[in-house]
Amino acid sequence: MNLSPIPCAVRSTCPYCGVGCGVTATPLPDGAIAIAGDASHAANRGRLCVKGAALGETIGLEGRLLHPAVREDGALREASWEEALERVAGGLRAIIDEHGPDAVALYVSGQMLTEDYYVANKLMKGYIGSANIDTNSRLCMSSAVAGHKRAFGADLVPGCYEDFDLADMVVLVGSNTAWCHPILFQRIARLKDARPEVRIVVIDPRRTATCELADLHLPVKPGTDVWLFNGLLSYLAKSGVQDTAFIDAHTNGLAQALDAAQVDCADPLAVARHCRVEPSDLMAFYGGFAATTKVITAFSQGVNQSSAGTDKVNSIINCHLLTGRIGQPGMGPFSITGQPNAMGGREVGGLANMLAAHMDLDNPQHRDTVQTFWSSPCIAEKGGLKAVDLFKAIEAGTVKAVWVIATNPMVSMPDANQVQRALEKCELVVVSDIVANTDTNAFADVLLPALGWGEKDGTVTNSERLISRQRAFLPAPGEARADWRILADVARRMGFDGFDFDSSHAVFDEHARLSVFRNGGARVFNLAGLCGLTAHEYDTLEPVQWPVRRGADGALQGSARLFADRRFAHADGKARFIATAPRAPVNAVDPEYPLVLNTGRVRDQWHTMSRTGRAPRLADHTAEAFIDMHPQDALLYGVREGELARVSSQWGAMVARVQHGGGIARGSVFVPIHWNGQTASDARVGTLVNPAVDPLSGEPEFKHTPVQVERFGVAWHAFVLSRSELALDQVAHWTRVQGRGFARYEMAGRGQLRERAAWARTLLGVTDDADWLDYEDASDGVYRAVHVVGERIEQCIFLSPRTDLPARAWLASLFASESLTRLDRAGLLAGQALGMRLDTGPTVCSCFGVGRNTICDAIVKQDLKTVPEVTACLKAGGNCGSCVPEIKVLLMQTRAREAA
């Protein structure tokens, strides 16, 4: 099979966050792929964050699912496509015939392309006749969808990225933009550099890297956003800054919204107390918002992932409606989506309570429109099961088959142990994935190999409604197929017409035509200008924002902003103020679980790490899962920084290392979401997260779970760097980190090791005649060993009863050498770099591989005072800028130490 890449540069789109950056992929003579930012793409103008820049390191076939597999006698075996598809189609048909269409379900993903999403939605809602198709986007942006629909009449993002350039005040709510949407953050940073008078406000319980750019940080008590914005609404009304003409002509519901706000939030001092912020800071925010016309309020998961997420969204929108700050340049509420195609999924009805083309399941005319267009035998007549309820129904046995596509619910869902119970009980579990081994795949009855990024062809839509092409530059590996094709194959085998697509272009054209069918201007989502594209026009399509029409000259005309005409999507054309009565999170802390768990992303990883975990440079910044907590809380609960601790809730538990990041208030802890059963022994934070959801959006409350933290006692700590994989079944705790040409294992154990050398040899699989150098201090419990093959290091192990093990960076550098010097061997046994080998320290700048020690040394020796000076000296901070906040802190700390 020929796996050579297509020999030309290809313009595509990054598969990570909702910023939707354009990339170029250029094959190199050695078979590698050079990834760069697409300078012509409006979303990023050539810039990429470190995750995007490292995409070339993630496209190898190691660990790929390349052939269909079916479970037989408890074990998976390779199968033909014919057998696998018949197993899926026949299994679904048998269950539907016996139990009805609602006994089957699809659980899909914002990682899918719009064309894939469209076919999945068409199959479930128009042919199977059930709305039991939901998506992992339910976990990140469904509250924004519900808020938009309540306020505007449809799921519509009013603004565009250019509005950030034009704003005089940017408010970031529940968004660590610097780490989660780095290119958008750098756009804001450039705005601040060009116009220092622009005010940046960050509203977040944690002091994150984003706060380093802020003029004001409001560290609100978790779950109090509605109090904060209801207070702002009340303040704006009392201050007389409302746009009365706009309100009277273009909105409804202000009186009710103000009445709700006045109950608890009329007094700013009371709001400050409830939100646990300084009254002076609160008034600075309120006063600044009132005095500034061009305000962008951008919000993300900190708002959406809540049992009151929809009300949080509407409390923000209310403030913009009151002041008329919407639909005009430089102003408006702005939902920053988490996934690359969360928006595209919403366009085709990927959520269980939506129909394709922004039509509604509860609207009989919309149902008839979609069914007529599809010529389908039926149409779902009621909303389906949303993600959390779906897996509860699987466990209860009412849903007997689930097809999981491009997602890993065993890691990403709340109450993940319940998800496991559900999959264990489910009669038929089908999984389409690119990776052979995931926590979810372990429960599959049928595994279907899908195309990955670089192999897929279609479209995605970013946070500003910008449709971009994702183009293939690699051939399909093994027997992998596009998701839309797999779905269509199953549909035809189930006896359904309407799935004779021969390309992603054909799917997109049908999607565009449905957006126009019986529209007549009633629906804002409209792709009229994209109907009837030829295959060449589709292949060469430039990014364009919907609604899309054709001008008189035939040129495509996108829409940067919505509501400039002050007409909204409700039947009367008016926007709605929504009364948002504040309410606390569903689960309150108590003496048994006294701390609030907040979850989220780290800078250089993505979701469950099936892609980013393959790139060595992305592992260097944050190698392990961690528990970030306040030092006083750590003292109170008997845990120490650098040591392992167990976090538990009434739903589950996990183990990670304690750290004091300096940005978290007392009473809270933060744990990242990325680690899974393939990368750590016991670090799935989803097992802890409570399953409470917003009653409207169904979005889970990832930001507020009561937990306890306790010491995880171990007798020893160790790490191994090894060119070969290790079996770690007998180790109490471990984390696997991908290095360049090796894997790094951080581990700890509970039993005393009597014969350390013998134990280490067994763990590493080293024979008696191997070149094995070791050192042991029996009295101190310290053991170090290195396994050499020829002159090259093969493995090394460092073990101690304490956590003060040698630095890893210089050891990792040895694996790039073809031979070890005498000083290298001596350093390995001494546990420190000797001679010219320098310990660069933990990675700060992943783009250029610059470590903390290197930066601090340069600050001192070169007398560096600013980030630009550090960048000029070391390149650090000169690409995506994600590390700039950390460099600022190092400058401050290092210069303070030197001055002391």
UniProtKB/TrEMBL annotation:
4Fe-4S Mo/W bis-MGD-type domain boundaries: 7-63
One protein family per Pfam: Fer2_BFD
InterPro entries: Asp_de-COase-like_dom_sf, BFD-like_2Fe2S-bd_dom, BFD-like_2Fe2S-bd_dom_sf, CT_Nitrate-R-NapA-like, MoPterin_dinucl-bd_dom, Mopterin_OxRdtase, Mopterin_OxRdtase_4Fe-4S_dom, MopterinOxRdtase_cofactor_BS
Highest rank taxon of the organism: Bacteria
Keywords for the protein's UniProt record, in alphabetical order: 4Fe-4S, Iron, Iron-sulfur, Metal-binding, Molybdenum, Nitrate assimilation, Oxidoreductase
Matching CDD domains: MopB_CT_Nitrate-R-NapA-like, MopB_Nitrate-R-NapA-like
UniProt xrefs under PROSITE patterns: 4FE4S_MOW_BIS_MGD, MOLYBDOPTERIN_PROK_1
Cofactor needs: Mo-bis(molybdopterin guanine dinucleotide); [4Fe-4S] cluster
Keyword Iron: yes
Family listed: Belongs to the prokaryotic molybdopterin-containing oxidoreductase family. NasA/NapA/NarB subfamily.
Protein known as: Molybdopterin-dependent oxidoreductase
Species annotation: Massilia aquatica
